[in-house]
From TrEMBL:
Protein name: Protein neprosin-like
Originating species: Nicotiana tabacum (Common tobacco)
Entry superkingdom: Eukaryota
PANTHER family: NEPROSIN DOMAIN-CONTAINING PROTEIN, PROTEIN, PUTATIVE (DUF239)-RELATED-RELATED
Alphabetized Pfam families for the sequence: Neprosin
Amino acid sequence: MSIGRDLVNGNWWLFLEENHIQIGFWPQGIFTDLTSFATNVEWGGVVYSPPGVPEPPMGSSFFPIEETSYDSYCRGLTVLDDKGETIDVDETTTLVDNPNLYKVIDLPHAIPGKFQHFVLYGGPGENA
């Protein structure tokens, strides 16, 4: 996946795979702070339950063990610069609201030379 900004009209796009299949679009007008460029990119997932209801499982419902036949994952995550070229994002922060219920592993540079991230995630929630 990659994220890019249309230099003509300022809209933001989410692309899938190397042939850049357009899967997400956000008009520039909803990003009032992103009129020229982004200084931060986030990717991840969310699980939700109403108050008083146990937190649901995420992904495969198991903590990731860095084995893709078991783990839920996103691969090939990339960031594009204002020229549409892939850039290196080597400084990442992993955030999990409750590490007793969920875990995320970000593996930058999973494919050497491509500046891509491989993110594994999951957890049993409160149903453990």
